[in-house]
Amino acid sequence: MTLSWLSIVRLGLVQMALGSIVVLTTSTLNRLMVVELSLAAVLPGLLVALHYGIQITRPNWGFRSDTGGHRTRWIVGGMVALALGGFAAALGVVELEHDFAVGMAISVAAYALIGLGVGASGTSLLALLATATAPRRRAAAATITWLMMIFGIAVTATVVGIFLDPYTPALLLEIVAVVTLGAVAVTTLAVWGIERGVIARAEPDAMPFRAGLAEIWAEPKARMFTIFVFLSMTAYFMQELILEPYAGLVFGFTPGQSTSLSGAQNGGVFVGMLLVGIAATGFKLGALRHWVIAGCLGSALALISLTIIGQTGLALLVPATVALGLFNGMFAVAAIGSMMALAGQGRGAREGTRMGLWGAAQAIAAGFGGLLGAGAVDVMRLMMDTASAFGAVFLVEAILFIASALMAARIMDRGTALAQPQLVPGE
Q1: pLDDT tens for each residue of 191-249
Q2: Distance in angstroms (rounded) separating the CA atoms of residues 95 and 169
Q3: 386-389 contacts: CB < 8 A, separation 24 or more?
Q4: Of the CATH numbers 1.20.1250.20, 3.30.465.10, 1.10.443.10, 3.90.180.10, which one belongs to the domain with range 5-423?
Q5: pTM reported for the whole predicted model
């Protein structure tokens, strides 16, 4: 048996829960450290890089899923770890105001736990989707689950932004506790019993992890796609840790307003993903490479706009941010569609390992990109005014998106539509 549409939507709820916790650590807590606590932007950048760096273990989680074991327990257990890490991260921010050393110790442990939780839960979920979804439904499943994740991120950021003003440490802890406990409850209910009803794992084999990973890396398509994922995701995540501080330092946004700005951006991502899903899957308009290229180039233009409005003082921060989210969403869902299809190519029973490899490339790029963006802003602010410093980083990010578009034009199939099932032969 394969996953029904209802089961795919239920697994999408897990993605939604995961995104709702992660957005608090990468946007709200980041802004509080930089603006309210006046810490260098590189500090939250290092913490977020830590949680992404730990996700280099993703191929191992995927390999475990491929070679035996219950995926449900890794999904739920990973979400519990993520929830504990998310609440501890909020506690660390509160403690930083009173005792920097203690606050940093709590924060380091929290972000490490977040990385382990995301790696275990997220990779196991993707492995379940890749192996238990019928080939004709894989692209649609990718679109549905990522739309739900972005929806969770956008709603969480918007609602938290509303309730967080006026900001107090006690209010922050209450809000984060509600979000994290809710995420664990939703995940447990959503995934319960699904795995028993589908063929989700291959029979165990004795191949060591390193040999299995080397086998996948030797596949030309998997290797080139990994490089593309790293480059494009570095561009995608460079603004993640600096957009809210940009709104606060240059435009005077409050914590609630800047958190709501993050919600607006992710709302744009949601619309972009939905647009591609309807146009490419429903109406067969455009190939994957066309949507990836359009998304990358549009993201570059939006970043250039963010630079210009910071210099001119135009009140267009929200529209430019929504446009960035829109084009980010177009790029992301097309790349995810490719990922889901390519996961089934090559050596059989290795879908989880491929997804883990690409997930690790994304995580490393996210950590590197976020840290690069935050660190570059700190350096640039020593040499120029604040608006120009942020603008310079946005321009570098735009260049990386253009380079990603050029790479996609070279390596991606010209005629591959988002919904074509024949990308996964032999099933």
Answers
A1: 988 888 775 554 555 566 677 677 777 777 778 888 889 999 999 989 888 898 899 99
A2: 9
A3: 386/249, 386/250, 387/250, 387/310, 387/311, 388/310, 388/311
A4: 1.20.1250.20
A5: 0.73
